[in-house]
Amino acid sequence: MSKQVQQVETIFCHETGDDYLVVVERDGKRLFRAKLGLSETSAGPRPAKFRLKEGSSEEPRQPDEFVELARRAKRLRISEQTSAEGRRDLREMFAGYQLEDKVKTVRTCRYCAGAGRYSPITTETAVKDDTDWICRDCARQELERQLSFSGGGEVTGAAKERLEDLMMEVQDLERIVNLLTGQLDPDLTKFDTISATTDEVDPVRTDSLSLHPGLQDLLEDRFDTLLPVQSLSVEHGLFDGDDQLVVSATATGKTLVGELAGINRVLNGKGTMLFLVPLVALANQKYEDFQDEYGHLVDVSIRVGASRVADEGERFDPNADVIVGTYEGIDHALRTGKEMGDIGTVVIDEVHTLKEEDRGHRLDGLISRLKYTCEQRAKRRDDYGGAQWVYLSATVGNPEQLTEALEATLIEFEERPVPIERHVTFADGQEKVRVENKLVRREFDSESSKGYRGQTIIFTNSRRRCHEISRKLDYSAAPYHAGLDYKRRKEVERKFGDQDLAAVVTTAALAAGVDFPASQVIFDSLAMGIEWLSVQEFHQMLGRAGRPDYHDKGKVYVLVEPETVYHNSMEMTEDEVAFKLLKGEMESVMTHYDEAAAVEETLANITVGGKAAKALNDRMLGEIPTKHAVGKLLEYDFIDGFEPTPLGRVVTEHFLEPGQAFMLIDGIRKDAHPYELVADLELRETEL
């Protein structure tokens, strides 16, 4: 004890029932703990018992030893959490030994004090816990305990760091725990704001353009000047026939770039315009838009699959002035040898689809096959000078590289018309619907300075969940996905446009740009099907929030369920994915090929180009080992020389991978029912 007495720096006293816990420290490290009891004497309160604590045992010592320790100590500290009577008794006791100058009452962490640690805290370092204050280390431990108690599981990585940072910022444990149950405290949910930005671009006056008179008049009636991205495009050769990659945020007007180029060339006799999109829902909307805007100037047709799809039931017209189509719809026409007419302009919307694992190679192949078809047609009838290509995207991480690969001119515009607030909160699957209901009500009850009510798009991961959420919302809402028929989807679009719906609940069908003027986007899930969203997809979807002609700002809410996965193939949990997406950089757009994709595209190129298939492979963005792919096609009996066999033709016309083809062949040989084969095929695609 004598050695310890010589080295004492701080003695801390904290009331525990009728006694006091004493912590003796040197250099910030605890030397030992003890229990001190006081008794009232004629001279005032004095030490009556003093016991050293070691684990659960206590070693009695003489009370005078405590007095000697106090005299040797540099600092005597009394916990603020000690009762007023207890603080008074301790001060009187220390004053009786002329030690009052060393005494100070300090705020300490009650958890540390209870565990025999001296942890002084200040207004800047303390965290509020109910009516008390605790240190930061104990606050972190208590937050983890509360998480486990509430069933939140183990919050990992960036999500845990985010919660801890918020707790230190607001210094209130209860507010963070409430956040974990779906509370919408705006000071806590707000992650960041993507500011509205405007690049300095001199606007091009519409009356300065020399377009076909019909289009010129239409444009001048609608606008005095072009928007910045449109002006940049015009200044860099849009109407000179130059190929362009236009990269600009959602709602900046890049779609009109493609429309102006194509319609003007159609009216000037320079071939048909193809406007290609990834989704049927988007193709249907663009078809109607073209009909409404340009129907008095041009004939418009649509191709989304093997045949024309429209309310009137008309067939696809290859001789129409404008053909709106899905990637697969036009590719099917090429693979089956359909006449495509004299193509003068090709607009590829959402060109970042090139990077998608399942569909990217098909878009890559389509571009190569379509260019080949256009070139062959131009050689035979050189009366319009070849096709102009315009590629559109809001999300490209490598625009310079992609532009070079596409042999185009880059038109990049960084403007965001309105700011977007991004919020993150935590909730389980059932709690999410309650949070969504509150957010939808709050947004629909608000009105922008432009006179529009706030409306919401909720993205989720399945059609079933779309219907579940929309049924549970208090305000008018509707599901919207590819499983609905055309008439039902158009009704939802109309009602949303008329502000008769507070929300639509959708899967990926809306992510690619179906025109819903929403002010708010909610992510019920960060998965689409059984795959986590990519940074590109996430930005594409959140970009639907806020339109310059309707809203003052956009709002995005990411609802995160810690420790959740939606399929056992997912390696990350939703809380990990959330902050990866929020902080992530845009991925590069480039196509990658596995063997199945290489075989599928090579077969399609042989079907369309015959002996030119190698040249078609070579011009694609992704690298295809042509020799190996051709070897596999011969092995599978899909080709005979540079011609598809009857089997190969069926395989390519139905966009089958080799494994799918062999599964169907095997089923046919075993006299399997057609429904059984289709079910097996769907199941295989789901598992992949």
From TrEMBL:
InterPro entries: DEAD/DEAH_box_helicase_dom, Hel308_SKI2-like, Helicase_ATP-bd, Helicase_C-like, P-loop_NTPase
Coiled coil: 156-183
Signal sequence extent: none
SMART domains in the cross-refs: DEXDc, HELICc
PROSITE patterns: HELICASE_ATP_BIND_1, HELICASE_CTER
Keyword Cytoplasm: no
Record Gene3D superfamilies: P-loop containing nucleotide triphosphate hydrolases
Domain annotation Helicase C-terminal: ranges: 434-590
MF terms in GO: ATP binding; catalytic activity, acting on DNA; helicase activity; hydrolase activity; nucleic acid binding
Pfam family, one: DEAD
Name of the protein this chain belongs to: DEAD/DEAH box helicase domain protein
Organism listed in the record: Natrinema altunense (strain JCM 12890 / CGMCC 1.3731 / AJ2)
